[in-house]
Design a protein that fits this description.
The chain has 255 residues and is α/β, with parallel strands linked by helices. It has one domain (2-209): Rossmann fold. 27% of the residues lie in helices and 24% in strands. It has helices spanning 37-52, 69-78, 96-107, 129-137, 190-196, 206-209, 241-251; strands spanning 2-6, 9-11, 33-35, 57-63, 82-86, 114-118, 141-150, 154-160, 165-171, 174-178, 201-204. A hairpin with a 3-residue loop joins strand 7 and strand 8 (154-160). Helix 2 (69-78) packs across helix 5 (190-196) and helix 3 crosses helix 4.
């Protein structure tokens, strides 16, 4: 079985994230860049299956600038077998549709049995990339899974929504997206880090994928810094505090 996992190199969620005011894009020079935590959990799902089925091949795939290789290297150190890095200057600022088109072109020749992605990245939080890939690749999608069970011919799990939990299943090949309720990723030890240096990473651009330079359908017209938090009004209880509090909430349509 061949399992592909989408990983993403993102600004560290524990640091301060910023937008580049000139481009409206994430400023990837400010602060540390790390593999997205949800990507690590997705890799863990694939590796957990590989632990039981040793013949499983785990492929990790990313689209991003040259430094995104660090995310692939982390996944390889965890235990993935090989990696594909789609990197091309023409993809800077690509929107979700362009990203899905390019990743689909990279994944299609691989003929994977299962594609695993996080439900949303911590930088863009679009949350639709797995669905776009399912449409482009013509595969069934099980989204927002909090449990995953994989057999030779089927993937199943528990899907969560605001209203209920649902048991879902689909025949392979298929695409799934997982939530943060899946287990934490395993630790990449020194042995894994050293082994990752010998694992193959293919670097491809638009020409190798047979794609023309894509045009994003979205455009950032302006950006603005989030205003600093200010202190709220202080209510002194002079016998009318309850009335003042009720009025405060009513003015903001909270009651």
């Amino acid at each position: 079985m061949k399992i592909a996992v989408l990983v993403k190199h993102v600004p560290d969620t524990y640091g301060e994230r910023q937008l580049d005011p000139a481009t409206g894009r994430t400023d990837r020079t400010a602060g540390d860049q790390v593999i997205d935590e949800i990507s690590e959990r997705a890799v863990e799902v694939a590796l957990a299956h590989k632990d039981h089925e040793k013949s499983t091949e785990v492929l990790v795939v990313t689209m991003g600038p040259a430094q995104a290789t660090d995310a692939l290297r982390k996944a390889l150190a965890m235990g993935a077998d090989r990696a594909i890095h789609v990197v091309d200057d023409a993809l800077a600022g690509a929107d979700l549709m362009v990203t899905a088109t390019v990743l689909a072109a990279a994944l299609r020749p691989e003929g994977c049995d299962l594609l695993i992605a996080g439900n949303e990245s911590t930088d863009g939080r679009g949350g639709v990339l797995p669905a776009l890939l399912a449409e482009l690749l013509g595969l069934p999608l099980l989204s927002a899974l909090r449990t995953v069970r994989l057999t030779d011919g089927e993937v199943s799990g528990t899907r969560i929504t605001d209203a209920a939990s649902t048991q879902v299943r689909a025949p392979l090949p298929a695409i799934i997206s997982i939530t943060e309720q899946l287990p934490d990723a395993r630790f990449a030890g020194l042995r894994g880090i050293m082994a990752a240096k010998r694992k193959p990473t293919a670097t491809v651009g638009l020409a190798e994928l047979g794609l023309a330079t894509p045009r994003s359908r979205t455009l950032v017209t302006s950006t603005a810094a989030m205003p600093r938090r200010t202190g709220g009004p202080r209510i002194e209880d002079d016998g009318t505090a309850a009335r003042q509090l009720a009025q405060f909430l009513a003015d903001r349509h909270l009651i």
